[in-house]
Write a structure and sequence with these properties.
heterodimer, A: 456 residues, alpha+beta, six-stranded antiparallel β-sheet, five-stranded antiparallel β-sheet, globular, B: 215 residues, alpha/beta, seven-stranded mixed β-sheet, 20% strand
Chain lengths: 456, 215
């Protein structure tokens, strides 16, 4: 069975056919995935511009809201521009606008309420409308009852706070009425609840007083009101009149329906101001100028370069064809020869060529179903990023630089529609057309322009 | 000067275990293709949605990082091995911590992320799953939908991850396609109503054909 072991045989071991010894190879490292370099927002919106559709305000749903509203109001202290438009997402999905606003004047006093109904709530447009109507109605009635002189500032603040309470009560009243109405039960597929009417609310009143203007704002939810002193230093020019409620993630915000009177105090702000511009807006605009504490100045610039607010008189010499060629080369290639650089210095004063930075996308409108009408819109951000930074060879050229040289803007002004003379109508056209990636919400903006000099 | 865009992050957690070999994993690949072509025609999704794919078999890993829809390419995926669903949840939490932006005073936050989990059977890392699921639930940072495809298991185990559980309990051809078409509708529906309050259920379309909601 076993061969006898020969003690004299050499002690060799005959290797069996070997199983090759595998070198220990570590498993291939799992490559950590790296996302591709993101496309510029413009490249994305260039593609989506033709995909946004217009579907009319539904006729088979209760409480339809008008989709395109604007109004200019003159008062003794100045002028109010205002507009509200249905957002791209509502136009695309064929749903109602959820924003609303109301304005009022009483001699030199002005007041306004602006509201944004919660997007996920199907009756929020009712909430936004009835809250604004009640707030403004309460302020008007209260002011009518005041004596001609001698009203304390605190009295005005009280009136604004009461207006917010009245607004909330009016929403509850609307709920109580509609909960019993079959139309709403069948619309929602269940009985309405108070939270179906959830909406934000901003209420402001501005009263001329001896020291300037008393500005009172109360803010529930997101959106913002702000004062801008255009003849002041950059750093002191902007005062926010509210702190938006923001949750951890975007889109989480408190609503009027959950307001308690205890919360009201911290949501009210009153200042005496010498500012000449006042803004109130829903989140659909406020979110495009974030963070509000710095970027509302850019809103001011956008209103100038789109012809809604006036600029300053400048004489604008046209560029020669040679200058035009160099200007285009600067914008789109950014490589100039030495002699071209010399000519560039002369171009700096004549900035009209930056007008070509306007973006024209199809107007999403019932009057433009074939997408043939395109509306040119100018953007401060593009003027700075794609134009002025290159022109001045200054990487960090920003809002402050522009503030200190804003006469530039008048040269770059571009009217979305040259035939419109009413600034609020132009405001509506701008709101309806300016494009920011991911910004598809309803937009409401009220701009109060105070006459300079006169403090009454 | 242009500021950050608010994004809707969407994470797809896909079971690539051995039991998915063959027709099921092919159906998943086809489903992803369908999902992409539907989403890429929707302007809201194109501007807002960012997608990521996490696969799990014996291990779990993120095969496609959070990528804007317009540039998103379907990953190549294969099926083999076990079912590390717990591992997938841990990878998900890491990814969300690294990739999802929270709102700050100077930075716009992303919308609340959506997470779709597709699995065809019980996990093989139950202990890991238990602790990962409980950690995820306390974080409350995402809208999670879990879906069991097939009749090899009882979907109750998915309830530890989320209240929103779907079950395709009879295997029919086209079921996977229906699931991915439903994922596409859910993303589009959420893109168009991006203001859900925390803890509120987001609105989802009715479950896909052949699927039931697990109460």
């Amino acid at each position: 069975m076993f061969a006898p072991i020969d003690p004299n045989a050499p002690a060799t071991v005959t290797p069996k056919p070997a199983i090759p010894i595998q070198p220990v190879i570590a498993p291939p490292p799992v490559p950590v995935p790296v996302p591709p370099k993101p496309l510029s927002d413009k490249k994305v919106t260039d593609q989506t511009a033709f995909l946004w559709k217009y579907k009319p305000v539904p006729t088979d749903e209760p409480d339809p809201a008008p989709e395109y509203v604007h109004k200019t109001v003159n008062f003794s202290g100045g002028e109010i521009l205002s507009a509200r438009v249905r957002g791209k997402k509502h136009k695309h999905n064929g749903t109602n606008c959820d924003d609303w606003y109301e304005l009022g004047t009483h001699g030199g006093i002005i007041f306004a309420a602006v509201s944004d109904g919660a997007g996920s709530r199907k009756l929020s447009r009712v909430g936004s409308r009835v809250s604004c109507q009640a707030a403004v109605r309460h302020i008007r009635k209260s002011l009518d009852k005041l004596p001609a002189t001698g009203t304390d500032n605190n009295e005005y603040i009280r009136i604004v706070q009461e207006a917010v309470i009245q607004a909330k009560q009016n929403v509850e009243y609307a709920y109580n009425v509609k909960v019993a109405d079959d139309i709403y039960t069948s619309y929602l597929g269940r009985e309405p609840e108070l939270r179906d009417f959830a909406a934000t609310l901003l209420v402001s009143m501005i009263v001329p007083v001896s020291e300037g203007r008393l500005v009172i704002s109360c803010q529930i939810g997101d959106g913002i009101s702000a004062l801008l002193k255009t003849d002041g230093e950059f750093d002191k020019s902007l005062t926010l009149m509210g702190t938006p409620d923001t949750g951890e993630f975007s889109g989480e915000t408190d609503f009027l329906t959950s307001l308690t009177t205890e919360m009201l105090e911290e949501k009210t702000k009153a200042v005496i101001s010498g500012a000449d511009l006042f803004f109130m807006m829903t989140d659909g605009v406020a979110d495009d100028y974030f963070p509000n504490g710095t970027e509302i100045r850019r809103l001011y610039f956008d209103l100038i370069i789109n012809g809604i607010l006036e600029g300053w008189p400048v004489d604008s010499e046209p560029l020669s064809p040679e200058e035009m060629t160099i200007a285009r080369k600067l914008l789109y290639e950014d490589r100039l020869t030495d002699s071209e650089e010399n000519i560039l210095r002369g171009i700096r004063g004549k900035l009209k060529f930056l007008k070509s930075l306007a973006l024209s996308y199809p107007w999403v409108s019932k009057n433009n179903l074939d997408q043939s009408i395109k509306i040119p819109i100018q953007y401060t951000s593009r003027i700075v990023d794609e134009g002025l930074r290159k022109l001045y060879r200054q990487e960090d050229y920003g809002l402050k630089d522009l503030w200190e040289h804003r006469e530039i803007l008048t040269r770059i002004r571009n009217f979305p529609d040259e035939s419109i003379t009413d600034p609020s109508e132009l405001l509506a056209l701008w709101l309806d057309n300016y494009t920011v990636r991911s910004s598809a919400d309803d937009r409401t903006l009220v701009v109060v322009k105070f006459n300079r000099g006169a403090e009454q | 000067m242009s500021d950050y865009v608010r994004r809707l992050p969407v994470y797809l957690l896909l079971d690539c275990s051995g039991s998915m070999m063959g027709a099921p994993i092919e159906a998943v690949k086809q489903g992803i293709t369908t999902l992409l072509s539907e989403l890429k025609g929707d302007p809201q999704a194109l501007e807002t949605a960012y997608l990521s794919v996490i696969t799990f078999e014996s291990t779990a890993r993120q095969v496609v990082p959070l990528t804007e829809l317009i540039q998103f390419q379907a990953p190549s995926i294969e099926a083999s091995g076990m079912t590390a669903l717990g591992g997938a949840l841990n990878v998900l939490m890491d990814c969300m911590n690294n990739e999802v932006r929270k709102s700050t005073e100077t930075q716009k936050g992303d919308w609340r992320p959506m997470v779709f989990i597709m699995t065809d059977g019980y996990p093989t890392d139950e202990d890991v799953l238990k602790s990962a699921a409980s950690k995820l639930k306390t974080m409350k940072t995402a809208n999670i939908i879990a879906c069991l495809c097939g009749d090899d298991a009882n979907p109750e185990f998915l309830k530890q991850i989320t209240e929103c559980v779907l079950w395709m309990n009879t295997i029919t051809p086209g079921a996977m396609a229906n699931f991915f078409r439903w994922v596409s509708s859910s993303i589009r529906m959420t893109s168009s109503s991006l203001s859900a309050k925390p803890g509120e259920n987001i609105q989802l379309p009715p479950p896909p054909t052949g699927f039931v909601v697990v109460p």
